[in-house]
Amino acid sequence: MAGALDYTLIGIYLIFLVAVGFRQFLKGKKTVDEYLVMGRRLALPGFVASLVSTWYGGILGVGEYSFRYGLSNWVVFGLPYYLGAFLFAMFLAKKARSANLYTIPDQLDRTYGRSTSLAGALLVFVTTIPAAYILQLGFLAESIAGIPLAYGVIGGAFFSISYVLTGGLRNDVITDRAQFILMFSGFIIMLIFLSVNYGGLSFISANVPDKHLSLGGGRPITYILVWYFIALGTLVDPAFYQRCFAAKSEAVAKKGIFIAIAFWAFFDFMTTSTGLYARALLPDLTDPATSYPMLAFKVLPGFFRAVFLLGLFATVMSTIDSFTLVAGQTIGKDFIHRIWGRDAARMTQIGIILAGLLAIVIALFKRSIVAIWYDLGSISTASLLIPLASSFGARWRMSREAAFFSIIFSGLVVVAWMGLGSIYDRERFLDIDPIYPGLFCSIMFFLFDKYLFSRDNYK
Fold it and tell me: Are 6 and 144 in contact (CB under 8 A)?
């Protein structure tokens, strides 16, 4: 269990978060432009730190997967997402920044109209609810301090959401910079201690199963491949678009993503290596999701252990705040405001509260981090990928009707496929992952619209 020093550093960190939120609260009402996109003044250092820390909140899920399957963690949760980010930087970053919009539904509204925008808003809201990350905070609080999971989930949600509620993206970026430093510092410390005290690759290879050092990790190729399709969800990732909308320039948006990829690769090297050490040193661990904190208690002394544990908290909370802000602005600005015309900033704050409450419920109901990623990632990628990616080029745009029905039916196909799997008590109905029939449905809408109907839908 944690000691006094661990609690002290975590307490200081939580006080810092509350202070950031209180400081912005005293400044009073914010304009929509300032609250959602920082007045479009986000510079390169803040862009990189915020994007890197935001996109790596699933630290316990990474620990769970690398403990179970070793190097496959990099193949599943590393490489496909670098490719997705690279494609975004090459083809969408500049277009997103030049659009001068606030959200993905804004882009859908501009291209396909209000109905498609509202459908997209509901979908983005559901898939950005930070349930998996709030669940991780609960696991951390339970494994480190013995706090009951439900209390850890609720308390973690409060501290992660309070400061974005008052200050929007600016507070998010301020805290992301500190969280960026903490997450990297913690794992650098951990790897130094592990390599000095236990050795390097020779120690790992002698103490982990052979499958852990294979790229597949013993998982079927169809399962691995589905994550490459889910990673294409990067092209519809609201956090990417939000930071590009907020960037000072198109160059900052594109260059920042390339720099972020390098940081993610380095961090993945550290997290996968740490997971392999955990498998070697804690072979009888009953809950692999706690492999990182349990390893810290085994190998790190006082202060260094506290820094590492704080880094775990910071890594998770950096994603919760960003995702909650995106979810809040989606349901608040892009749905409630678009329908009833209330103040967009105030509606976003109400949306943030709704997103936080719903995330708590989902986290306590479905207690598997990877499963939440898998389900929500499959739905959002299958539904949004084709309509949104095609919306940035006049040559490829779908008709308004096709885009609307593609989003609706593709998402329903994924959900129905998951439901059939549950009914027949199978991990994958007909041994086919749900994202595939969903993407097939979306592609069919696109092809039918573009090549079987010769109508001018874009005037």
Answer: yes
Residue 178, burial from CB neighbour count under 10 angstroms (0-12, 13-18, 19+): middle
**Alpha carbon distance 444, 424 (integer Å):** 27
Contacts of 320 (CB under 8 A, 6+ apart): 57, 130, 133, 134, 137, 156, 157, 160, 161, 359
| Of 324, 322, 307, residue with least CA distance to 12 | 307
**Which residue, among 290, 286, 283, has the nearest Cα to 212 in the 3D structure?**
283
How does 386-417 read in b/e, with b if 16+ C-beta sit within 10 Å? bbbbbbbeeeebbbbbbbbbbbbbbbebbbeb
SS (H, E, C) 244-265: HHHECCHHHHHHHHHHHHHHHH
- Using CA atoms, how far apart are residues 192 and 81, in angstroms rounded to an integer? 27
Q: How far apart are CA 276 and CA 163, in angstroms?
A: 35
Q: Kindly report the average pLDDT of the chain as a whole number.
A: 88
Instruction: List pLDDT tens digits, range 97-131.
Output: 998 888 889 999 999 999 999 998 888 887 888 88
Token pair of 250 as six digits: 């198109």
User: pLDDT tens digit string along 308-346?
Assistant: 999 999 999 999 999 999 999 988 888 888 888 778 888
Task: Quickly state the pLDDT bin for 367 (edges 50, 70, 90).
Answer: low
Find all residues with CB under 8 Å of 456, minimum gap 6, and list them: none
User: Is residue 166 within 8 Å of residue 181, measured between CB atoms?
Assistant: no
What is the distance between the alpha carbons of residues 354 and 350, in angstroms, rounded to a whole number? 6
Q: How many whole angstroms separate alpha carbon 230 and alpha carbon 384?
A: 11
Which band of pLDDT confidence, cut at 50, 70 and 90, is reported for residue 459? very low
Q: Which CATH architecture has domain 4-367?
A: Up-down Bundle (1.20)
Crossing angle of helices 238-246 and 44-54, in 10° steps, is 170
Q: Is this prediction's pTM over 0.90? A: no
Contact (Cβ atoms closer than 8 angstroms) between residue 414 and residue 434: yes
What average pLDDT score do residues 238-244 get? 91
Q: Helix 114-128 to helix 302-331 angle, to the nearest 10 degrees?
A: 160
Q: Are 319 and 55 in contact (CB under 8 A)?
A: yes
Complete DSSP assignment for 156-180: HHHHHHHHHHHHHHHHHHHHHHHHH
Rounded-to-integer distance, Cα 136 and Cα 408, Å: 30
Distances (CA, A) of 364 to 150, 161, 358: 7, 18, 10
